[in-house]
Amino acid sequence: MPQSNQNAVDLAEAYYDSDDADAFYREIWGGEDIHIGLYDPPDLDISTASHNTVVRLAGMIDGLNETSRVLDIGAGYGGAARYLAKTFGCRVTCLNLSEVQNAANEKKNKEQGLSSLVRVVHGNFEDLPFQSGVFDVVWSQDAILHSANRAKVLAEVTRVLGPGGQFVFTDPMQADDCPEGVLQPILDRIHLASLGSPEFYREELKKLGLEEKAFEPMLIHLERHYARVGQELESRRTEIQMHASGDYVDRMLGGLKNWVNGARAGHLMWGMFHFVKR
Question: Structure pTM?
Answer without folding.
Answer: 0.95
